[in-house]
Design brief:
- The protein contains seven helices and nine strands.
- A hairpin with a 5-residue loop joins strand 7 (65-74) and strand 8 (80-91).
- The two termini are 99 Å apart.
- It is of the alpha+beta class.
- The radius of gyration is 51 Å and the shape is rod-shaped.
- It comes from Prorocentrum cordatum.
């Protein structure tokens, strides 16, 4: 047991005149049951003794020892938790007399102080805060023990909250909450990625349509220039905009007829047709003009 003092005997059978003290211990010399002095490591001659009646010894360890204290308490949000606190203490050599004679059970004394601090601090915190403030709880335990145990001849090296464990049901619930949160974050990220994909596709389609429109406009511009040159080549005649539009319209008409005829999936198409170019252009213009009012009435 940590901090426990023990009865010792001298190095001669039936006599306690001299004693060998190990390096990791402190001995207290008693004469007829009364404390006389503290002796350190090595061979010590302490006086005349007969059959251990005159002189006796008590020892205590100088090593750093650890007490594991388990405290069950309730948090602010009514969750019962089991708190494990590891306390590391050591005898103060200059106060060895107090360490040997003042406390009957060092571990029980430390357990009481730790339980008092834990049951005062943890109920003021929620479960999440308790996990976050473990260092703060450890500091509170350390300060309380250092102040209380010093008068008994012990110094506190460390007091660490090494485990804070709620019930299994609470742990399962916390894991489920964390799982659902991660699933929600994954769904949000997937939705955001889909949004970006759709937006980028729309931007690409818009840019493609713009470029296509510019291409068609330049194509028609080239066709118009070509028609002008072919019609007026070698003459001083100039074409009006109406004539140019009529030539462009007729050219597109025949290109459409060519595409329909070249398609393997085309079926019979009934189109009013006259061999006269002027009649063709008039029919196309009239069809366009008659179709436009019909669409407006709809």
């Amino acid at each position: 047991m940590a901090g426990q003092q023990r009865q010792e005997t001298g190095c001669l059978p039936c006599f306690n005149c001299c004693v060998t003290v190990p390096q990791d211990k402190i001995y207290a010399v008693e004469q007829f049951g009364s404390f006389q002095k503290v002796i350190g490591a090595g061979l010590n001659i302490v006086g005349f003794d007969l059959m251990g009646c005159c002189i006796s010894f008590r020892s205590i360890s100088k090593r750093v020892e650890q007490n594991d204290v388990f405290v069950e308490t309730k948090t602010k949000d009514n969750v019962f938790v089991l708190v494990k606190v590891s306390v590391q203490q050591q005898v103060i050599p200059e106060q060895a007399e107090s360490a040997i004679y003042k406390l009957a059970n060092v571990s029980a004394q430390i357990d009481s102080y730790v339980s008092d601090v834990i049951r005062s601090a943890v109920p003021k915190m929620t479960l999440d805060e308790a996990f976050e403030e473990k260092d703060k709880i450890s500091q509170g335990v350390n300060e309380a023990l250092t102040k209380s145990m010093h008068e008994y001849g012990f110094q506190i090296i460390k007091a660490l909250v090494t485990e804070l464990k709620p019930s299994q049901d609470v742990m399962n619930s916390m894991n489920e909450i964390n799982k659902q949160k991660r699933l929600r974050d994954a769904a949000l990220m997937a939705s955001e990625a889909e949004k970006i994909r759709v937006v980028k596709k729309a931007e690409a389609d818009c840019e493609a349509a713009r470029l296509q429109g510019e291409g068609i406009a330049k194509q028609r511009e080239a066709i118009v220039d070509g028609l002008k040159r072919s019609v007026t080549s070698g003459t001083s005649e100039t074409l009006s905009s109406d004539k140019v539009s009529e030539l462009l319209l007729i050219t597109q008409y025949f290109e459409t007829m060519k595409d329909i005829g070249a398609s393997g999936k085309s079926s019979t198409v009934f189109i009013p047709h006259q061999p006269n170019v002027g009649d063709i252009s008039s029919q196309i213009r009239n069809g366009v003009m008659q179709g436009s009012p019909g669409q407006m009435r709809m």
